Amino acid sequence: MAQKNAVVVYEHDVYVLSQQGEVELRESETSLSPTDIELLVRTDGKLTVAEIAESMRLLAREAAIHAYGKLINRKLVTLHSGEKSDLHGMADLFSGKPPPPTRKAVTAAKAEASAGVSSLQKQGYYVRIARRNAARPPTAPGKALFAVVVEDEPHLAKFLKQYLSFEGFDACIAGNRNEIVAALRRVSPPDLVLLDVTLPDADGFDILLKIRQHPVLKSVPVIMLTAKATREAVLQGLAGGADGYITKPFEVDALIKAVGTVLGLPKSPSAGKSKL
Amino acid sequence: MTAEAFKRQLEALAADYRRDLPEKLAQIDSIWRDLMHGAAQPDRITELQRELHSLAGSAGTFGVAGVSEAAAKAESFLDPYCARRKIPGLAEQAKFTTLLDALRRTAS
Question: Which of A149, A152, A153, A273 to mutate to test the interface with B (most CBs of B within 10 A)?
């Protein structure tokens, strides 16, 4: 968030071109800078400030926020629908440090962590079945499911997306903060989040804590997908509220079983047929 | 999509991954060389560890388990240095170079 010339611009705001902005764009002798023009061209009432900055590559987010401040002052753009686009406060997923898990959650998770590590060593995944039963009814057959795959390794992300598509999910890949926020806003709440821990600009365990605190996302099934397989890491995942834990590199069958169990899905069509 | 078509799709993706492996290794080598020769800031050691972590976490899924294991060893070796954002001393550099050599051999 930035405050420029008394205008508050949030990176997750969505703007539309004003009438004045349209006129300015059509002017042959416009006084706008090439960057401002580029911003106006990309302002479509759908993309956030951060997404537009990302798509321009050369423009840092802070610079885009500052430039939007100028455009707002000149009445060339207006806030979409007159309100913040981030209806569910998704941007808050990354603001500030998440509160640590409660003492009760840590105590409960400690007892489970050893069993979790043992299961991880044997099967490559661990599923906390009780959480599914408590928070989410089994998925109805035929229901369209939406999954967010938080993974920054492009081949692995594509692999997970293909697998989930085959399983009937509409899957969306997110490899960094902006993409995670955009993905979580696409269908909110999603039916499943596969969450990597080591990301270029975020920590998966922090994101998990934020998800569990979020009014809309708190019951979303989350399966951690990580190369971290120590008792401490599993404890951190379980205390943070993960429903499942899969260690990388993973076997496809382990992933299928974990997703199926967490969501209460019938036996997968790809079970046993997708070994690489 | 049939299960067979799905399997073929995954196999194609695994082949892509293996084809790109030399590039990933070259990137790791390049960061390490820069760190050893002082051409990179010491805090790039965390970037090096992240590259190794990514390899350790993905290679096994795409059928090159040996690469995952070798990358995981190199990744763990860097733990104390990443915590302090410090480049290993000469003796430790030699040990790490040996680990990278092993990683390259496994991948070839």
Answer: A153
Q: Are residues A111 and A75 in the same domain?
A: no
Looking at the partner chain, which of A152, A163, A227 has a beta carbon nearest the beta carbon of B56? Answer: A227
Pairs of CB atoms within 8 A across A/B? 70
Give the whole-angstrom CA distance, residue B61 versus residue B96. 25
Point out the residue among A155, A166, A273 whose CB comes nearest to the CB of B58. A155
DSSP track, A175-219? -SHHHHHHHHHHSSS-SEEEE-SB-SS-BHHHHHHHHHH-TTTTT
Given a cut of 50, whether residue A2 has pLDDT beyond it is no
Total domain count, chain A: 2
Contact between residue A234 and residue A244 where contact means Cβ atoms under 8 Å apart: no
CA distance to partner chain A, nearest, from residue B30 (Å) = 19
Structural domain includes residue A275:
no
Judging contacts by C-beta atoms under 8 Å, the chain A residues touching residue B58 are: 153, 155-156, 248-249
Residue A269 is predicted with a pLDDT of 56
pLDDT tens track for A57-101: 666 777 888 888 888 888 888 887 644 444 455 666 666 666 666
Q: What is the pLDDT of residues A133-156, one digit of tens each?
A: 355 555 666 667 899 999 999 999
Interchain contact, B58 vs A200, CB within 8 Å = no
Q: Which fold has domain B3-107?
A: Four Helix Bundle (Hemerythrin (Met), subunit A) (1.20.120)
Beta carbons of A156 and B58 less than 8 Å apart = yes
* Confidence bin at A7 (pLDDT 50/70/90): low
ipTM above 0.90, yes or no: no
Boundary of a domain, candidates A36, A56, A85: A85
Q: Is the pLDDT assigned to residue A49 strictly greater than 60?
A: yes
Residue with tokens 């499943």: A192
Q: Which of A158, A166, A227 sits opposite B6 (nearest CB)?
A: A166
Confidence band for A5, pLDDT divided at 50, 70 and 90: very low
